[in-house]
Amino acid sequence: MSLRGDGPIEELAIPSGTTVEEHDVVVDGDVLVGGQSTVELGVRGRNVAIGERVRVANDIEAEGDCRLDTWCSVDGNVLVGEDAYLGERVTVTGRLMVSGDLDIGDDVTIEEGFEANGWIVIRNPVPTIVFYFIVLSQLLRVGETDAADELAEALADGDDVRDPLLIPRSAEISDDAWRVSTPATVGDDCRLHGNLRAASIRVGERNEVFGSLRAREDVTVGAETIIHGDVTTRGGTVTVEAGARVLGDVSAGDLVVYDGAEIQGTLRARGEMKLIQATEDEGETDEAGEAGAGEAGESNEANAGQSDEPGDEEADDTDAENGETSKNGETDESGADAGREPDDDDHESDTDADFDDDADAEATPTVKADAGSTTDGTGPEDAS
Fold it and tell me: Is the pLDDT of residue 168 over 70?
């Protein structure tokens, strides 16, 4: 039997391709059910292992081996393709059909009888996993690694390794609801009936669930999955991926909806609500950003060139005006010096009066007069 794992079952794991047909759960791989659980559906798989005090309300069909632990009860028939192991005080209300050997414990009740084609041993069988561990440990202890590898291949029956259906301890599985206190994971291409209740839920792609999803933590609905009910979480985040359909309401602490998802009911979120849309590749975005930056740089250079040219023109105009002012100042001073050469006092007084009148008339353009006076102060020194 390919029963893997050395610890308790910590989650509800529904493998890809699982379907619920009428009143049976059909799995391609193995089925492991934790102790003190209630399964209101029938079970059909490759190898079936049922824990202590588990109640199965319908038939069990195993292509390989089947093990029913102590105090189990099966309300139906048990059909086994290979070997069967029944612990103490197991009750089967129907008929037991075994193609291989049968190991049976004390006080076992089979109401409609049993049939086995191989050896029938009435005893308390050693748990299968414990037996395998004992044999493997002895082989490894004496150094027979090749024999241990051959045993492992024989236990796997040469078939491909497939994910098993894991049902945790104290679970309640029925056509109405799947209730567990652990996280729940659903693979791809599954068809399930019943509401799913768990600590957190993750549903894969291309599934169809005829029921609602409710969890205390996060809930994820994969692409192209159809949920015929509500999706609710107390304080976690609900994520609805692209192509998913929820034919009910969605209520969560935070809500993330991808572009292309369809929700026919109302959306309620106590925290953030995000809508994620598909974007272009990062490379195209970077090229567009570089092109935009280049165009912005060219426009800045063009603007800078245009802004510099008017400034130069204004500076040239200012210099030209200052030059003209200085020339006018030199002309006026030369005229004044020419007027002061004669010794006629009357003429000097008239010239000074005219100069004062001209200075008063030109007092308005203050900057130009100052510029002219500065230039005039250096002019006579150079001339001398």
Answer: yes
* Cα–Cα dist 196/336, whole Å: 112
Sign of the dihedral through C-alpha 27, 14, 66, 91: negative
The whole-number pLDDT of residue 41 equals 94
pLDDT in tens, 135-163: 878 888 888 888 877 777 766 655 556 78
Structure tokens at 50: 């049922």
Q: Are 31 and 47 in contact (CB under 8 A)?
A: yes
- 286: helix, coil or strand? helix
Are 149 and 135 in contact by the 8 Å Cβ rule? The answer is no
* Residue in the block written with tokens 């090229």: 287
Six token digits for residue 231 = 């999706």
Among the listed residues 160, 187, 195, 168, the one whose alpha carbon sits nearest the alpha carbon of residue 18: 187
Tokens of 33: 């059910």
Q: Cβ(170)–Cβ(39) under 8 Å?
A: no
pLDDT tens digits for 247-263?
999 999 999 999 999 99
C-alpha span between 66 and 86 (Å, rounded): 8
Closest to 79 measured CA to CA, from 126, 111, 114: 114
Q: How many CA atoms lie within 13 A of 375 on its CB side?
A: 20
Q: From 114, 76, 107, 102, select the one nearest 90 (Cα to Cα).
A: 107
In the beta sheet, which residues pair with residue 14? 186
Helices 128-141 and 145-155, packing angle to 10 deg? 160
